[in-house]
User: Fold these one by one.
Assistant:
Number 1:
Amino acid sequence: MVLKFHIETFGCQMNVYDSDLVAGILLNNGYVKADSIHKADILFVNTCAIREKAVERVIHKMEQYAHLKLKKGKLKIAGILGCIPQYNSDRLKKELPYIDILCGPDNYDQLPQMISDCLKSKKLQENLDLKKEQNYEDILPFTENTHSAFVTVIRGCNNFCAYCVVPYVRGRERSRSVQSIMTEVKDHVSKSITEITLLGQNVNSYNSDGMNFAQLLNKVSEIDGLRRLRFATSHPKDISDELISVMADNPKVCKHLHLPFQAGSNEVLKRMNRGYTREEYLSKIEKVRKEIPGIALTTDIIVGFPGETDEDFEQTLDVMKRSGFDNSFMFIYSERDLTFAKKNFNDDVPKKVKAERHKRVAELQKQLGIEQIGKDTGSIKEVLVESVSKKRSTEMIGRTDQNRMVIFSRQDGVKEGDYVHVKISRADGVSLFGEIVNLRDGGR
Ligand code: SAH
Ligand code: SF4
Ligand code: F3S
């Protein structure tokens, strides 16, 4: 009998990519995709350990799924993949005793063997070795996306920011070969995908076959049929002049930069081990804005890191105001096992203060979003159509080069994956709104 699998994904874009890798591995080994979780024989949940809330969410979900395995009997195997098993497998074994497989991010090629061992022995299969060479070079991921895809180019992280669990759950940095990246991007493009996002916890550390990240961007952009090239995430200390000039000069490289600053105070940045000062961050931003006109910036911010005073926090607001982000991903500090911060600092900012600071950054970001995104009002933007709006079936959603979301009226014949031109009539703090205009060549 052919067994069907279903994969559910939590966490960052790299987990989305990894789930596609797992799908590719399982399909190559004779398993097929289930139409829904209820039709699956095998369930994998790919998980994130970055904050305590992320862990709790997965455990809660898995408690809800227990009946699929224990009562209905259709589900033969339930497995947890990714960063939570790598972070704390004991907790999963204790709280979710029905789980059959625990597999860390470097062992997905072992999954077919683990599944068959588990079916035979009915015993928990666990594979949590960190493998410093693992890059899944020879495996093509399987994506259902028809217009856009992620391609991981570097795995792991060497930065050891004091709060962060990633270096412990993903191991050290290793870059994929240029050839395997090119093969994968070409495969996507041959299937009508026109937008690629190159991924890594710190893509700017990419280094393989004598090529750095800026050079890799130029190389990938040469692929015919590829129209948009994005990347995430960049570390402020590693943004090079070469990268800035590739962004400025290469028309396929999108004019959007995600550059997490985390905190605005030099004291806090130092304790976080971020490797830059507020002044250095701000001068990078200034340079990027000058060299790449029209660039959109987004960031990540942590509030309530150990020892963060009111004055420190004001500096975070100040960096936000000076930088003018389109969007910020704003997080309340969550203490993580294994990290330098947990071992050396007290999680001493009261919960209430953390919540208040989070509210204040969110309010400021809303205002900044309105200012930044509003600048597009009145202009005509090229938009990659992503989907029909879930809220209103008469509308479609797409994105501009700067990664701004655009909502526009549906037109006959316009479908997911098309490029259209949209005249922007208004903006709120998050999205742009407009109508398709048909330029002389048809507008698309
Ligand atoms: N490699 C990327 C992103 C890593 S995780 C980078 O360096 O920017 C995504 C974001 O989660 C981080 O940028 C940080 O803002 C946040 N984060 C990481 N660890 C956290 C923790 N312990 N508590 C709260 N937020 C955290
Ligand atoms: Fe975590 Fe810092 Fe690495 Fe990003 S650069 S993954 S925040 S340790
Ligand atoms: Fe989370 Fe792992 Fe990504 S901890 S942020 S899923 S690398």
Number 2:
Amino acid sequence: MNSITPGADVLLARWSALRVRARDIAADAVVIGGGSDLSYLTGHDGHSYERLTAAVSLTSPDAPSALLITPKLEAERITPQPGVFEIGPWEDAEDPIALAAGALPETGSVLVSDDLNANHVLALQERCPNLSFRALNESLGGMRAVKTSAERKALQAVGALVDVVHQQIQDGEVPLVGRSELDVKEDIAQRLLAAGHDEVVFVIVASGPNSASPHHHPSNRVIEANEMVLFDFGGIYKGFNSDCTRCFFTGPLPEDVAAAWSSLVAAQEAAFQAARPGNRLCDVDLAARNALTADGYGPEFIHRTGHGIGTEVHEHPYVTSTNQTPIVTGNAFSIEPGIYRAGEWGMRLEDIVVIEDDGPVRCNGTKREIVTVS
Ligand code: ZN
Ligand code: ZN
Ligand code: ZN
């Protein structure tokens, strides 16, 4: 859960940008279920579950403020934002779908956010047979995919905080050999907070053969000498996420590891250079993928090159080999190619970049070397 409390002016700007984009694709209304899109638009971190939480709004230029439908028992903790939304509380004996339907037009097209539960979507469809429903994020290419300059600055700021911790590991301030992954994870979490994050979101510590599992969950495994340790972690600062990966080796680098790492660095740099307005997202993925394939590591690069990031760690746009969406100023995403040799080691190099008019800018600055630590 992300805590963000932007002011009414910021929220209003977000709503009007959404309404304009929705009108551009001939959508007459939006339904935003509880989740990250809702907190982005209202500052309320409510989640949809069996009880409906959703903001409903028309998209016309003269649309009244949104209706934030919420279970009455949660209405108390919503900060009122007059002019941005009205609160529409409902009690358990009432029908919230009727409330939502009442705020929608009779006919037309409605965009529904990813977080609205299927039970609510199906009920709405049944109640409003003359409306057609589309997926909001899919249709818009990500409601939050284009960041304002203030949002890009927020990503730079939180990136600097995660760098502090990777720097501490690179400087040898975090002992590794002889400690369990879980022990080190706790240490890292403390350091993320000490560096200034408001909240720790995730910490991956993957040692030895565990590093070959990209989303490894830290375990009781004790880190040994002469092996890989992969660190991928991030937190939230002022509502925006950090996410950065660096790798370490607890001894002299074996030749195969050194060779793979230098190929990985080159692949990440090639992807970085491709991340500019005018190119497509698939160009970024393919830059990394082709570089690794040319060096013989193609089959061991088993995931997409990156993901958008903002108020969520993973959000649009996704950097895949098939995403033909053009890159535009304001996009923000990770560039994180990896090489995974099952049973032996895995490595990944991840930086967040924001796209400015003249190209990509990294949000992370610790050196992109595999550092020997003990
Ligand atoms: Zn991941
Ligand atoms: Zn990561
Ligand atoms: Zn990532």
Number 3:
Amino acid sequence: MAKKKKSIDTKLIHAGEPEPRIGGAVSIPIFQSAMYETGGEGNYHDIQYIRLNNTPNHLAIHEKFASLENAEAALVTSSGMAAITTSLMTFLSAGDHLLIQDTLYGGTHTFVNHNIENWGVAYDFINGHDPASWEAKLKPETKIIYVETMTNPLLQVADLKAVVDFAQEHNLISIIDNTFASPINFRPPEWGFDLSCHSCTKYMNGHSDIVAGAVTGSSEHMEQITHKLNHFGGTLDPHACYLLHRGVKTLALRMARHNESALKIAEFLQEHPAVDRLNYPGLPDHPDYERAQELFDGFSGMLSFELKGGLEAAKQFMERVELPIAAPSLGGIETLVTRPATTSHSGMSPEERKAVGITDSLVRVSVGIEDVGDLIADFDQALS
Ligand code: PLP
């Protein structure tokens, strides 16, 4: 079996699959049972119950996800936000301090600056591109440094190696939201990150039909996060586990197409006279291109841009495109377009958005797996 699980493409199919197969089933069945007959468990967390994240569907997917990122352990959660908030609140208590990147998914940003102070936790935003400025914000109470692999929606790639070094030097837990890259393009534990969070609503599931999350990391950290989630209750239902398990098996194929098509669309947009600013770290003139090339195996299917005609032009583009669906979220097989100021980042105030460079006219594209020629032709007609 060890041979079978060698590359990530193979692990997606075989890692974590029950051995022996249950009743010979090639696809893991759905264990839709809330509770299980007790077998003399001595510990609360070992009692088999859906909220305790230990049904056969959970155990199989945990093993698969851990193997994808070469982590010791993994946990799936009821949403990406459940993964992020549970990971943070496992290691932060009243009196503690958090260092967190200033450009982030809007939900994470709002969770931090509207909530955690109520629980006595202090925080400072950091510029992920300027490691020299982090030390000044460090406090004796700092416990965690948190970043995103590629920031949502500006696709910036912070100095991720410096984040790991800083965490190790100052005894902090390093957490990264790896949603945009997926384990195909970046595996945070290989680079020394302690915890990697995902919104599996996006690439991991890939079919825009469930909301789910995941965390991977060391067995020690993951046991603490699992026990916290067991009490917080943000558990993924077995039926959703099954859908995620089914969806993730094609991740390598889907990501290859997302990576390839987004690069072609970025190259097309870069040359288009209507486009003002384009954010895609796979283009050689993106400021973070060299870093992205060193760290990533692909640049993902996400890009964002502004048009010379500003907000009106952005609105017109969104109305004129025919194949992409105007909808929030990302990472599915269909191309989606959105203006983050009205969706993913609408929880931030206009001033907060402005401070990090998210304008009202910014358009974000999640490139799907349709024929890229059809997509480019559609973008072209919508822009002209
Ligand atoms: N992280 C990133 C980068 C996201 O884009 C999102 C959602 O858009 C989340 C986390 C939150 O995920 P979920 O909606 O599954 O809670």
Number 4:
Amino acid sequence: MKSAKIVGLGKYLPPKILTNFDLEKIVDTSDEWITTRTGIKTRHVVEKNVSASVLAREASLVALKRAGLKPKDLDLIIVATITPDTQFPSTACYLQDYLKAKKACCFDISAACAGFVYALTCAWQFLKCGFYKNALVVGSEVLTSITDWEDRSTCVLFGDGAGAAVLVPSNRDGFLSAYLGGDGSKSELLILPGGGSRCPASLDTVKERLHYIRMKGNELFRIAVRIMVEAAQKALKRAGLGRKDIDLLVPHQANIRIITAVAKRLGLTEDKVYVNIERYGNMSSASSAVALCEAWEEGRIKKGDVVVLDAFGGGLVWGSSVIKWV
Ligand code: UT7
């Protein structure tokens, strides 16, 4: 097989919505600050005890239905998440059980906001080499479970949600190229410090609020713009294409100002860039997954279009995929 293609997309956003005005009641912030600095107006948040696998299941059922594939026929399930149900088993295992996808191999990918792009690239390679006949790739996050509701510099940014894609091998077009990268030397810029083997959970780690996201937003902002531009350019080059060939850029939705700066540097007009950050905030791996699904649902992606995914996040990690839609 030459490549792989996406044959079904799905998304799920938990029904409860938190507005900027709601946040004004929790921390010292304002709708005006959040809107102008980030572009976010609302975000969806889970009710208690709703985990990443639950959101993943809902998104997956939609994607599988649209793909015309039965869960029992699934070969591979990859879930990209930094908010897994448990450290182990993987969220992909819980999803496999929910779906009764008994013959599927399942694993999680931890690549923060670039997780969906990393996971798609893995699935594409499994299909291209003939190892599997189909794959379910999901980005699912309950970021509100690791959000510090006393930290106004981060708690206004995040939301919960999931997006899913079903992939099958393709003899022509589909995934044309990808470019993935990382820089572990800058891990401190965006991190959840507590609870892992480096800093096991204890009463002290809880007291010090180490189980919440910590972010140096300003530094990340500058790196994000440069890296996302580079990643898209490198992925396009690998596909033998240039920025003029882009029909739709689907960027990670962390900040409207990052998206605008990336689009400007790539020379793209507004109509070639998909944006939904105002409704969902930053959902890490789920952002690209939900954005791709919505862009397709809204008719922004047509057969033959060149779609570029472009994501960046904690790690640091980044990735861009170039897809010719079939
Ligand atoms: O998804 C993975 C990748 N993520 C990113 O790449 C995120 C990149 N970073 C960002 O999007 C932005 O840096 C933020 C949205 C996080 C912050 O925006 P900023 O324009 O960089 O603000 P800042 O951190 O420089 O803070 C400016 C001011 C500060 O006050 P002073 O020191 O100037 O008096 C903050 O204390 O805004 C203050 N501030 C707030 N004010 C009201 C920070 N958070 C808030 C808030 N409400 N929620």
